[in-house]
Amino acid sequence: MKPxxxxxxxxxxxxxxxxxxxxxxxxxxxxxxxxxxxxxxxCHYKYRSISSLPSHLDSILRLYTYSVAxxxxxxxxxxxxxxxxxxxxxxxxxxxxxxxxxxPTLQTIVSLTMRTTVxxxxxMGASLLRLFFHDCFxxxxxxxxxxxxxxxxxxxxxxxxxxxxxxxxxxIDTIKTAVELLCPGxxxxxxxxALAARDGVALLGGPxxxxxxxxRDATTASQSAANSNLPGPGSSLSQxxxxxxxxxxxxxxxxxxxGAHTIGQARxxxxxxxxxxxxxxxxxxxxxxxxxxxxxxxxxIDTIKAEVELQCPGxxxxxxxxALAARDGVALxxxxxxxxxxxxxxxxxxxxxxxxxxxxxxxxIDTIKAEVELQCPGxxxxxxxxALAARDAMAxxxxxxxxxxxxxxxxxxxxxxxxxxxxxxxxPTLQTIVRQTMRTTGxxxxxMGASLLRLFFHDCFxxxxxxxxxxxxxxxxxxxxxxxxxxxxxxxxxxIDTIKAEVELACPRxxxxxxxxALAARDAxxxxxxxxxxxxxxxxxxxxxxxxKSPSPRLQSIPAHRRVRRPWVERxxxxxxxxxxxxxxxxxxxxxxxxxxxxxxxxxxYRNLIAKRGLLHSDQELFNNGTLDALVRQYSTNxxxxxxxxxxxxxxxxxxxxxxxxxxxxxxxxxxxD
Length: 674
What we know:
By secondary structure, the chain is an all-alpha fold.
């Protein structure tokens, strides 16, 4: 047997020399004529096309030249190579510098794409982090989660924890396309996903960490493993610890990685699971942190279900009953009861603590009601009149407010310093950031538009529009937040903080808080539009007397589901047609995992757990009189400790069973196996 072949067998465990292109080049050199002198060998080495080899292999070939010249023994050199390879691979093959020569622009491409993506969709940072987690926990970090199903292949995308839930695939495709243009066939989808997850966290204010690279892509996937390996939102603490331990991660890693729920949103499937009682073998949601000793109304649903079963056995789901009950419960809320005066035998709401000597406008509603009764007697409820008046008051307020702002701006710009284009060069994405954040805010809290409008008003009326109202009190400074008109009343500060944080990422130390507040107040219309979207498509109430005039166009726009409270039997027969149509809340409803700062990576998640406000059952299990309570308390008060532990845990998770060396492939399309 030739010496090079024998030595090659000894090195079979080394991925460095098993790569085909390296083996071919080594063999070509070693099969030179044995009479070749060291000078001739050096000449061959100099002119053979081996300049593209990685630096450590280049060094080995140089060592080969030297050893032949000194020892004259190819066999001795290959044994020496064996030693180098064993040392080089003893600590694993992943390295932060893996692509430093073959694709030096990789991290720049990922960073720029992620910066744009998170700017336009802050939630995407959380989505890519979750995508990476769901990849690594199923047979290792091998990008198997990215593979599409085909007629002959079943991937992981449609597994229970992933179907209609995972997102961010198009972002990985975008990065992969750009990388392939510059470094074709070089960078794995698995490494791109690892880098994108890291950058998404950092862009939302979280820690960064060094990502070791060199993973290769899987050619297979396992839907069954995805269904069994990923811990679910109903997991107990012991189940969570066991699931992470199976991947080589300890309880501290699990607690830190769970902090990823400080960003992103959860999909709320309306499946009536909250109605299920605990049993000896089942932990339901009734006693989860936010629910325990808090939720009520179970007996109402039970009563309705029993009656429905008598009429339509086995037909109507508990989920639909719950949705309908919630709908009618909301309808009973806006009932104009606040307009009722006290009498000798009736105590109304006008003189309740929050209302006494405070509420105004009753005479306005009385005037409108009198005029409406002339046109449509006995038709339009006080509740609907109040709703329309509030809507139109907002429209008038916005118009007046804009005029008022114009006046302020005219006075303030007498020196010519304010301009709509002030940030056109220094921060061109400013208005996009504000508008996108306000649009998201409006979907989560329609009232926030009015709150930010009021916040801007209270700022401008005190020494000008200078954001002084945003300053917190300190031991040596008394701000405006606790002044009587503001204390326990102003809100929206966290929205301004969120916008400011995102703007600072794009344009550090460029945009003032005063300008952000002004833009947010203007874009408050997005929150109004978001809240009004739910009223579209409703039919106006028509008069029930043929001789009456048709209601005016303004009255026809009334969302006529707000009616004065009255017993069910007293409702007119046609009243049921006026109620909102049955739209069962679908599985696409989203709720922020951290309602305080959903787009900022911080430690508020742990403060939520201590306050028993964990959104998911598995979240609250971390702080539920268990072994991890102390660690949760530490993270809640020490953001630095959480950030450090999270980064370290992400590195360990990224090292779960990677494919390296000759295992796996480099897919040119992350969705398919080439």
